Design the sequence.
């Protein structure tokens, strides 16, 4: 049964995941490995209190990273944000490892496939341009197969191999963390959860999440000055009337200035 103490502990684990996911998005090469720590925290939340609170913590951690540095490299920790609560919930039910890996791999494969399709058809400019890029990148080897079919087949193989490797590593790391997680505090006395702090803000968090999603969609739909100005004005108005937490403003402005530079 969901209690205030369970929600409070899930919030603490979400903060741990936020730090890990934020660092993974900032790292140029080791994002997957850095995000594992945050994934363990989310898996713990789901193992302890169920998939519902696990996904709640996952959404909270993901939104906090976006609030701090925007949508830059958003997909680096996203797969673990999507899969960690599933793995944790399955571990809480003593599900065999192979089924945990399979569930994790299924979600990961769908995610990376959609990302690849977006990259090919939107960022690259279509299959023909993607094939040309592939041939330019591999043509010098003298032994790599060329052509559109080769490019698509090798891309599919790479997705399958990465899915199998990353999902296996992810589940094994998660299980190691969950198995070694202390069941009770070190002093062997159950700690009474601290009362949660009052929630800042005056609007329903669900409405805020929907509004943030709409603003995010508008920002990636175009780069015209009227659009950017309208979204900026709306965000300024929301910041003034929302009454939200102010302690993160200075950090957010600093990170935004660094990214802009």
Sequence:
């Amino acid at each position: 049964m969901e209690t205030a103490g369970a929600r409070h502990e899930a919030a603490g684990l979400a903060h741990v995941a936020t730090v890990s996911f934020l660092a993974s998005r900032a790292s140029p090469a080791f994002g997957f490995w850095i995000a594992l720590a945050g994934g363990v925290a989310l898996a713990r939340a789901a193992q302890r209190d169920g998939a519902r609170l696990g996904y709640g913590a996952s959404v909270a951690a993901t939104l906090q990273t976006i609030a701090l540095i925007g949508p830059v490299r958003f997909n680096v920790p996203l797969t673990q944000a999507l899969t960690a609560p599933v793995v944790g919930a399955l571990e809480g039910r003593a599900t065999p490892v192979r089924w945990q890996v399979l569930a994790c791999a299924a979600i990961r494969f769908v995610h990376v496939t959609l990302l690849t399709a977006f990259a090919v058809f939107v960022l690259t400019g279509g299959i023909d341009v993607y094939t040309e890029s592939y041939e330019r990148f591999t043509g010098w080897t003298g032994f790599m197969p060329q052509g559109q079919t080769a490019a698509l087949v090798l891309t599919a193989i790479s997705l399958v191999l990465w899915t199998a490797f990353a999902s296996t590593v992810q589940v094994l790391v998660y299980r190691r963390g969950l198995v070694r997680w202390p069941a009770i505090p070190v002093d062997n006395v159950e700690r009474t959860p601290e009362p949660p702090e009052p929630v800042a803000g005056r609007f329903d968090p669900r409405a805020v999440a929907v509004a943030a999603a709409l603003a995010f969609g508008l920002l990636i739909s175009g780069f015209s000055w009227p659009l950017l100005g309208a979204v900026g004005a709306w965000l300024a108005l929301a910041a003034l009337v929302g009454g939200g937490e102010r302690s993160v403003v200075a950090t957010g402005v600093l990170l935004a200035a660094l990214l802009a530079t």
Q: What stands out?
A: Residues 185-189 have pLDDT under 50 and may be disordered. The chain is about 75% helix and 0% strand. The chain has one domain: 4-184+243-260. The two ends are 48 Å apart (CA to CA).
